């Protein structure tokens, strides 16, 4: 009985944690990646934002899909309403199809 209760409790905790939770806010990712794209990196404060961006990877059984990865990263960056489309385009053109 204890194992069942612990299993249900563990399942509930895991279910409450969203799998899409990112370490960094979308707008923070846009800001840090734009700085990186223009040569003004944000230093250690941007590591989690850069990691969140480069962790978006699309693959199939044949390997890495650069165009699908770029599309997924672009749609992630577009979640930041205050980001300029030109900034997002610049980020995607430089880092969109790149492996992390």
From TrEMBL:
<keyword id="KW-0732">Signal</keyword>
<dbReference type="InterPro" id="IPR009989">
    <property type="entry name" value="TrbM"/>
</dbReference>
<protein>
    <submittedName>
        <fullName>KikA family protein</fullName>
    </submittedName>
</protein>
<dbReference type="Pfam" id="PF07424">
    <property type="entry name" value="TrbM"/>
</dbReference>
<feature type="signal peptide">
    <location>
        <begin position="1"/>
        <end position="23"/>
    </location>
</feature>
